[in-house]
Amino acid sequence: MKKYIVVLLATAALLGCGKKEEVVEAPVLRPVKYQVVEKTGADLARDFSGTIKAETESNLSFRVSGTIERKFVKLGDTISRGQTLAELDRIDYEVKYQASIANLEKTKANLVKAAADFERYQKLYFNDNVSKAEYDSSLALFKSGKAQVEAAAKQVKYDNLQLGYTKLKAPASGTIAEELSEENETISAGTPVYMLSLDGDLEVEFFIPESLIGQVKSGAEVLITADAAQKREIMGVVTQVGTVSTGFGRTFPVKAKLTPPTEGIKSGMTAQVKLNFKFSDEDVVILPLQSVVTDSLGVTYVYALEGVSGNEGTVKRVDVKTGKVTTRGIEITDGLVNGDLVITAGMSKITEGQKVEVPPKGVR
Prior knowledge:
Blueprint: H1 2-18, E1 30-31, E2 33-36, E3 43-54, E4 57-61, E5 66-71, E6 78-79, E7 84-88, H2 91-126, H3 132-164, E8 167-169, E9 174-179, E10 186-187, E11 192-198, E12 202-209, E13 221-226, E14 232-241, E15 251-258, E16 270-278, E17 285-287, E18 293-294, E19 300-309, E20 312-319, E21 321-325, E22 330-334, E23 341-345, E24 355-357
Parallel strand pairs: 1-24
Antiparallel strand pairs: 2-23, 3-12, 3-16, 4-11, 5-7, 5-10, 6-9, 7-8, 9-11, 12-15, 13-14, 13-16, 14-15, 17-22, 18-19, 19-20, 19-23, 20-24, 21-22
Helix pairs in contact: 2-3
């Protein structure tokens, strides 16, 4: 009997030594991100890139063709009215001018001779010493000589103007905004050499997409930020709203006048323009479009969080009604209240009642 008991105890001891302790692993929670529901104003500020320009800009060009011999100003220079900006090669025009002067002197000499001949024939005719035909011929030569002198004088004046046009002068004070032609370049009359920004008010030009252009009106206020001027903020007022798309992604040009003071702001600077748009007359809830789901029965819903404690929360389905889709997202007109936590990311493989991992407080 004792031997039998010893064998049983030894067997039990052996079985006990071979048994492994079971380890229960905690389930891995699926991470999600969420948004706190808050009804906000329906106004939305949008930013657009633009370029600051002088309200009045003009291209400056020679009125005659030729080769640019010298340029006296460059990009960014401040110029005064009447200042010489560039010159063409003048040789051809000087030759023409001198030739016209010589022709004028020649016609004047011919006129002197024709006048003397006419005076002589006039006396002879009155004394019946020459015929009427000879008298008429001398008179015609005299009148022709006068006409030739007048034409030659006009040609001298014209050629002198052409010679003067070989100098490009500033029509007004301002700043050189752009250089469009270079020295030694042969250009035709009217080819722009400089772009001049006239002294005066500044404006910013930017482009609005067709989905928003209908809300932009003249007189609307904008906030303009110039990066090159230490991100200085300046108020502006919309002055022009384009009615024809420019073709850049079906956008429309808009111009806004900068309100003084504008010290340190220069034509050509890039700027950000902030403009407010209204999407609804009431405060609304806006959610990212991907956070709203529609089931097989056509019911629209979102996944919300409840019982959030630490880094965990429980998924809850909430049926909602939706409104318009805007550039900010989709409007939720019913089903949510301020403070609800709506899952916006990581929702592809979650179900109602599931435990999920949420970001630390303050991280969305």
